[in-house]
Design brief:
single chain; alpha+beta; Arc Repressor Mutant, subunit A; Beta-Lactamase; 2 domains; six-stranded antiparallel β-sheet; two-stranded antiparallel sheet; about 15% strand
């Protein structure tokens, strides 16, 4: 018997299947559509949906004919103590960066094969490029993902690659180019390059390091240059502001290597 089948809990599996299905449907599904997608009886789907609604994991639309995920799972994920503490510590530092740099910034953490945007601060000037908090972005085609891989230990690195699943629009990368990119990051301590997702954006990204010099998270600024008469900080200055922010949040100050 496979290890995964040794301790089966059919009711739990059914509920999780519904949640995972609804997570892929931004506009929700009707009960009939859920039954069809899951290939189960209408009665068992109805009972499970009613329990998920009662526990507020799933919500009905005002007309009552469609079901969609509530924000409860998102709220629970952000209550996770280590992530919550990291976000609470990062937000004032990120806000200070945004004010000095006049750019937005976001914090990325590893999540199930890709990168979760755990925190995001907009530029106070109103002109910026931003990635929404809660969004998942690619592990293999973003600055955040490459920083997390570059500063992962060998075991975590292999696990992250094994868990990776391509996201919509992901830009492919060869193993040779990936290794060259990661080696360059380790050499200089950060990554700065044209965005692989948006024209005219330069991604600047630094790792937030733990005591063992692995990346707990990343700080990334999607830098955009103003071309009107406003004179803002140059990209070189923005890079240094971001370096200082990542260093302030890292746990390596005074113990081994700091952010380069």
């Amino acid at each position: 018997m496979p290890a995964d089948d040794r301790y089966r809990a059919p009711a739990l599996d059914k509920g999780l299947d519904i949640l995972e299905l609804l997570a892929t449907q931004p506009h929700g599904l009707t009960r009939a559509e859920i039954v069809k997608e899951m290939d189960r009886s209408a009665s068992e789907i109805y009972r499970m949906l009613e329990r998920l609604v009662a526990r507020q994991y799933v919500m009905r639309n005002p007309s009552g004919d469609r079901y969609a995920l509530s924000l409860k799972l998102f709220a629970l994920a952000n209550m996770h103590p280590p992530l919550s503490r990291l976000i609470n510590q990062a937000l004032p530092v990120m806000d200070d960066f945004a004010r000095k740099a006049e750019q937005s910034c976001h914090m990325g953490v590893y999540d199930r094969g890709n990168v979760l945007i755990g925190a995001q601060i907009n530029s106070p000037r109103g002109w910026s490029f931003s990635v929404q908090r809660g969004a998942r972005v690619g592990l293999l085609d973003t600055a955040s993902g490459h920083l997390l891989l570059a500063y992962a230990d060998a075991g975590s690195y292999q696990r992250m690659l094994a868990e990776h699943t391509p996201l919509d629009g992901e830009v492919p990368i060869t193993e040779e180019k990936l290794q060259a990119t990661l080696a360059a990051i380790r050499k200089v301590g950060y990554l700065e390059r044209d965005s692989a997702q948006s024209f005219g954006v330069v991604d600047i990204s630094f790792p937030i390091l733990g005591p063992d010099n692995t990346a707990l998270a990343t700080l990334t600024c999607p830098y955009i240059r103003r071309i009107d008469r406003h004179v803002g900080p140059e990209m070189a200055n923005v890079r240094e502001y971001l370096r200082e922010a990542a260093k302030a949040l890292s746990f390596t100050q005074g113990m081994g290597r700091e952010v380069a």
